């Protein structure tokens, strides 16, 4: 075999995803795209706000020299300064451009953070269900992902968290709004989380870093998503504009380090070095220049709210059990049978493409990505009803 054992195992573990995509492509060819309902990927069908296109055109037509050249690895100072100002306004903390490092999306941000802080054998705690790539990201740098269960409503089980923290704990990784549940951690939860991490850091005589993965932060249905920066000093945020500007393919994000983080300067230098080591070098220049120009612009959240409400209310009406999401664009209902892989396979036979909860460390559930046209959801409802009848849901 010419590929590494680690990659071979990764291919094997993701084979069900590959099969699902292949089956979806086959069914689309056989039945037509209007008859196949792909709710499998968080890849918004909606186009970016018009301001994104207009400003990109201006940037491309500009005669300013150096538009596409290298910049400091951390990113353009003007863009980083703009983002730092936004965090200062939100939190009241004195962010500077040195606390911001531009990255290739939130995935790139998470990787450079983990590369910077993890030694072999270190543990990173996260909560199930969790984004599918967290395990691979952590293990790639010699760490271990420790998965802590959540409560029935997917809120943090703080007793379970305290039991999981050990002398090997390097970081706690949260995702709010959450993929796949849409759960948002409120101020009370973040404060309690910060208090626990502060106490445990003192007991261990070693700081536990809080990493908050926030690419869905601006897709919130009940007001602004609270920032962990207000509740715990040793916090880092990884985020992107993939979702709020509907430009996931452009891969633009950043790392934000709390000005109160006790390892602030070393972290900043480390993340920049990690960018180079991992081959990212820098975030895309054109996208970096774009961000300050589209100040305050984002996709209309009401589009997602309308989709959420229609789909959620229908699923509840026909007998599915589901926590109503407060952010992002996913539903995470309970599977009517214990084997969520089998349920997803059966749903495929009805031309519904879903993702099993097992992919997110939560067997017995399934994920629906509702970042599709409203009409697509309306046309899919009878198929969900047929599934409910098949399993005699009420």
Describe, in plain words, how this protein is organized in 3D.
- With 394 residues, this protein is α/β, with parallel strands linked by helices.
- It has two domains: 5-49 and 299-390, Aspartate Aminotransferase, domain 1, CATH 3.90.1150; 71-293, Aspartate Aminotransferase, domain 2 (3-Layer(aba) Sandwich).
- The protein is built from 13 helices and twelve strands.
- The chain has helices at residues 5-13, 15-31, 50-61, 77-91, 105-117, 134-139, 158-164, 187-204, 264-277, 285-293, 301-317, 340-349, 374-390; strands at 37-38, 100-103, 123-128, 144-149, 169-175, 209-213, 235-240, 253-257, 330-331, 352-353, 355-356, 366-369.
- A seven-stranded mixed sheet has the order 2-8-7-6-5-3-4, with helices on both faces. The protein has a three-stranded antiparallel sheet with strand order 9-12-11, covered by helices on one side.
- Strand 3 (123-128), helix 6 and strand 4 form a beta-alpha-beta unit.
- Helix 3 packs across helix 10 (285-293) and helix 5 crosses helix 9 (264-277).
- The longest helix is centred in the middle third of the chain and has 18 residues, at 187-204.
- It is globular.
- The termini are far apart.
